[in-house]
């Protein structure tokens, strides 16, 4: 193998009350998120003692991947770095260099394309290498996996299990959710000339594949965790508004599947397990939330398969017609102008 290590690159989250505000400032720096929204989100974190489960979940997933690598006889140490909280990716890359890592693969904990889900992880790679300067390892990011059969299979089984939780004949509607983004960011996602909307189209495709895998008929794709100033349009409808609309249509139960995420981090346990579940309960509707794939053994297999596929130069195992994208060297974009960040209100002028 031509690689010395695997870098697990994630979002990061606070690990105590004093981390919450500095973490949120890291996330939103220069992005025009209003102060009131930050205060509101800080409350969500404080509800859990200021601790997001995301770092623990990433550490658990890494342990599973280390086991799977060992089982397959692949000697690849795994390092952990985040965009927004400790362990910060800059520090991790410095440690990798000090350990003599020359060339590493990078697994980003997002399955999708788009600025926030893909390109921003490229920026993290570029920034971390630049911070170290000379001697920084070469970093090769692995491809998007929203349509990988192991991802789709794990999520489909979780959807089936959530329906089973509600019982057979509730007629529960399946609702897929992913993190909302500004409509301008979604429109600009994908390589120039590809028609844009790569992020929302991939989410819709993943939902279609999972629904087929789980054997569910009707389903909807909606959005959650909207941020940003109210005058900026984001992808809609919101999950909570959608539950109201389903109720008005006579739907008596919902299965919510956070297909846009890989683990039960705060956006899932607050926005779905609290807000969406509360609304369903108020309306007297049944509610079950499908598990994210992080805890499924197929998730570790998926990561290792992405590694072996890449190192063997094997064809991408995938279920959609979207081109395999996201695999680039040292934080380069997939193509010039691919998934460009859009101008934020606070940066204008
Ligand atoms: C597409 C997408 C993903 C999925 C891809 C991926 O997984 O990477 C994702 C994941 C996550 N988002 C997370 C948390 C937050 N996202 C925020 C803000 C934003 N997210 C955005 C998009 C996305 N976000 C955007 C366009 C913004 C506006 C500001 C900006 O343009 O950057 C804010 C600021 C406060 C707020 O306004 O909500 C927070 C706290 C956590 C960690 C949860 C935890 O701590 O457990 C995770 C995994
Ligand atoms: Fe986010």
Automatic annotation (TrEMBL):
Binding site for Fe-coproporphyrin III: 52, 121
Protein's cellular compartments: Cytoplasm
Catalytic activity: Fe-coproporphyrin III + 2 H(+) = coproporphyrin III + Fe(2+)
Transmembrane spans: none
Protein name: Coproporphyrin III ferrochelatase
A single MF term (Gene Ontology): ferrochelatase activity
Pfam families, sorted: Ferrochelatase
Coiled coil: none
Family as reported in the entry's similarity comment: Belongs to the ferrochelatase family.
Keyword Glycoprotein: no
Organism (species): Prauserella muralis
Gene3D superfamilies: 3.40.50.1400
Enzyme class at the top of the EC tree: lyase
Gene Ontology CC terms: cytoplasm
SUPFAM superfamilies: Chelatase
EC number: 4.99.1.9
GO terms of biological process kind: heme biosynthetic process
Involved pathway(s): Porphyrin-containing compound metabolism; protoheme biosynthesis
Keyword Transit peptide: no
Known function: Involved in coproporphyrin-dependent heme b biosynthesis. Catalyzes the insertion of ferrous iron into coproporphyrin III to form Fe-coproporphyrin III.
Gene, per the UniProt record: cpfC
Alphabetically ordered keywords of this record: Cytoplasm, Heme biosynthesis, Iron, Lyase, Metal-binding, Porphyrin biosynthesis
Amino acids binding Fe(2+): 179, 267
């Amino acid at each position: 193998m031509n690689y010395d290590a695997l870098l697990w690159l994630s979002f990061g989250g606070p690990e105590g009350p004093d981390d919450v505000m500095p973490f949120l400032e890291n996330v939103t720096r220069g992005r025009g998120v209003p102060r009131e929204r930050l205060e509101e989100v800080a409350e969500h974190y404080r509800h859990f003692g200021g601790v997001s489960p995301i770092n623990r979940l990433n550490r658990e997933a890494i342990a599973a991947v280390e086991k799977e690598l060992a089982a397959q006889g692949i000697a690849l140490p795994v390092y952990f770095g985040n965009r927004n909280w400790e362990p910060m990716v800059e520090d991790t890359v410095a440690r990798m260099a000090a350990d003599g890592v020359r060339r590493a693969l990078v697994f980003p904990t997002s399955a999708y394309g788009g600025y926030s889900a893909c390109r921003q992880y490229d920026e993290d790679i570029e920034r971390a290498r630049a911070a170290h300067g000379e001697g920084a390892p070469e970093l090769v990011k692995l491809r998007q996996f929203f349509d990988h059969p192991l991802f789709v299979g794990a999520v489909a089984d979780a959807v089936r299990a959530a329906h089973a939780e509600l019982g057979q004949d509730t007629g529960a509607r399946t609702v897929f959710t992913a993190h909302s983004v500004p409509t301008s960011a979604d429109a600009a996602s994908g390589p120039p000339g590809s028609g844009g909307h790569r992020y929302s189209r991939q989410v819709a495709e993943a939902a279609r594949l999972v629904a087929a895998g789980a054997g569910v008929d009707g389903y909807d794709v909606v959005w959650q965790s909207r941020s940003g100033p109210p005058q900026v349009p984001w992808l809609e409808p919101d999950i909570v508004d959608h539950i109201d609309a389903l109720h008005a249509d006579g739907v008596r139960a919902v299965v919510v599947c956070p297909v846009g995420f890989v683990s039960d981090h705060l956006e899932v346990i607050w926005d779905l397990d609290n807000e969406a579940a509360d609304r369903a309960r108020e309306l007297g509707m049944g509610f079950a939330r499908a598990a994210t794939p992080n805890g499924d053994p197929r998730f570790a297999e998926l990561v290792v398969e992405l590694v072996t596929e890449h190192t063997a130069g094997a064809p991408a195992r995938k279920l959609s017609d979207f081109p395999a994208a996201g695999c680039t060297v040292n934080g380069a974009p997939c193509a010039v102008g691919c998934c460009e960040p859009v101008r934020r209100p606070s940066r204008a002028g």
